[in-house]
Amino acid sequence: MIEYPVQQRHPAPLEASLDALGELRGLDGFRDRRLGVVGFSAGAHLAGMCCHPEAFGFRVPRPDFAVFGYPLISMDADTHRGSMETLLGPDADDQTRRTFSIDRLVDPQTPPSFVWQTDEDTSVPVINSMRYALACYRSQVPIELHVFAHGPHALGLAGGAYAEPWTALCARWLAALPD
Questions:
Q1: Are strands 143-148 and 36-40 parallel, antiparallel or unpaired?
Q2: Minimal CA–CA distance to 152: which of 128, 113, 126?
């Protein structure tokens, strides 16, 4: 079994995530199923990197769909500085930060994506979700974006919060994905 690193800089988290996807694709019960990635905040950035493995030197299949909650998308503008420094180090140059901005990687082969966030999020600016949605729109990638007016960062499943409907909306979206 693979040991999954925690709190390590690139490429360790991406490598571990792609290995896990590969393991799942090799299991009997998963060979003919769609596999996706789900991530929240900085974890959504990692999930977004999984959607473009070739951009980081990996030759593996992309996931079939992605679900992002309050995603950190950009490393070059409107970013969460602490997450950016944790992933890339405090001295990352502009080109490196652009390379790791998921919205800049979107292409027509990007998996369909469901994205949600709140407008009141003070940790990761909502413009991250909007930039990703716009990039998907421009590349004709199916995208569903929900921006809820109220709620802080890190709502998770949002039990009892204004953004709680995201789970039902996501379930409906997942059910409507083509086989």
A1: unpaired
A2: 126
Degrees to nearest 5, angle at CA 149 with 66 and 77: 60
Whether cis (ω within 30° of 0) applies to the bond prior to 111 is no
Block residue for tokens 């995208």: 143
What Rg do the C-alpha atoms of the chain give, in angstroms? 16
Tell me the residue type at 29.
Answer: G
- What is the pTM assigned to this prediction? 0.90
Q: What pLDDT, in 10s, does the model give residues 37-95? A: 999 998 999 999 999 999 999 999 999 999 999 999 998 877 777 777 877 778 888 89
Two tokens at 158?
């949002």
Question: What's the number of CA atoms in the CB half-sphere (13 Å) around residue 179?
Answer: 2
CB 48 within 8 A of CB 66: yes
| Residue 34, helix vs strand vs coil | coil
